Queue: 2 jobs
Job 1
Amino acid sequence: MAVSDAVPQFSKAKSFSKASSGDGQDVSLTNLSAFSSGPGIKSGFEVAAIVAVAVILIGGAELALRLFKVPLYIMPPPSAIATALFTEFPLILPHLGYTLVELGGGFAIGACIGLVLAALITQFPFAEKIIAPYILLLVTTPMLALVPLLILRFGFGYTPRIIAVALAAGPMVMINAATGFRRVDNAKIALARSYGASTLQIFWKIRAPMALPMILVGLMIGAIFGLLTAVGAEMVGGGFGLGNRLTTYSSMIQMPQFFAVVLVLSILGILIYVLFFLIGKKWASWEA
């Protein structure tokens, strides 16, 4: 019997981007329904339930605070916080911009250094023995403790805050990226070496793509840690930023405005999470 040399063709219905469900339907990993436990109707019900719980919590807090006549300087009701956010937002907006500049600059520097160090220690084990103690020192040291020293050296401008954010974000990115670079199937690397692939080609074609989910997790954690560090540095010293607004409003016992800034920071943190979730859904959905 003659053996055919034709290249086998695979139908799109059985591509590697899909998995077969129990009822014989194909479920795309890039589809949100693949991550839910039921059809779209149930997903809509879950969203409605989340909204209902939020309404109950906010309404209950409003009712309880007004019923027990809790003073505004102790805990303002949600309506007072919303009013303060609306009225004070033109004053808060410039400080939000200052915080975003600090976060963006420090995070970019820290993430780049963290990724480079992660690639270095995974390719050269000897380098890990040298770098690891210092990374551990940075992880265990509160960055806010270094802010006064940085202010004494660099003044009250952007520089000490950006450095603090970079020192906070960099180790988180490095640790997660290094973990991702190591979590690679050795069989793939052996196969690539058998075809003559160089160490650099193996890193860019195998290690980096397979590590992308962990890299995104590290970037998300680093960004959140950077935001917290930026706000803390603004509270320690300086006349601008959301952290400065927190210090100013608390010293003047303007608690509705204080919690309005806290709400802005919470929304900013949620946006950071959503951003990296969407990036992961776009570029690393195969990990699911």
Job 2
Amino acid sequence: MKDAAEAVEDASNSRAFVVAARTGFTVSGILHVLIGAIAIQLAFGKAPKADQSGAMGELATQPAGYILLWLGTAACVALALWQLSEVVFGYRRMKTKAKLGKKLSAGGQGIVFLALALTFASFAAGQGKNSGKTTSDASVQIMKAPLGPQLLVAVGAVIAIVGIVFVARGMLLSFTKQLNMPTSRTLRLAVTVLGVVGYVAKGIALFLVGLLFVVTTLQARPEESTGLDGALRAVREQPYGVYLLTPIGVGLVCYGLYQIAKSRFARM
């Protein structure tokens, strides 16, 4: 058993596996760039869904799009497995409290990237679904269950809190602890600016998604809980919505570019 565990640990630290995992950050970055671009289009008129399904739908229409989707699947699986391997083998020299936080974070990210890989695979197989409709349908079903409204409010609150954490991480520059920052002063500044703007915008977007869950649940309209796309469209419908949504879109593009940079500079 010990030999098997050591073999798994060696595999998770192999150069090929780490390169594949780093590609997962690049894939996530490309998705966020597309989502940000769609959000900017939405600010000035009609646009595809401003969420993962919209971004993947855009990828599917490109030449060799389905090849890109399968590559995205493989890269996200690799990154998910690397994050999960950190839960088991990582952070051994840290104190117990700090180690637990790191392991929980790695586990959460592993689950997120595994879900992203499944979504990529679904689109690559030609069975991609509208994530907004899926979210809405799930919310309606949960609403009908015992304690369903309370659960939806709790989900919304958790998402909103995660959004606040993202904003704090950006403002406090704590994301830089995950990076081996480049030696070039100009490049270091560029990565930092992309990270700050990106994390703040991503945090605002997540906070809006969580707020939408809470508001629609309290108003007994769970069918309107349509995830990121619904939250961004709700911003667009507000007075001066175009001036609110455009910076969010630009920020999501910055977050995508930061993720691409992270694929090169992340500590792994």
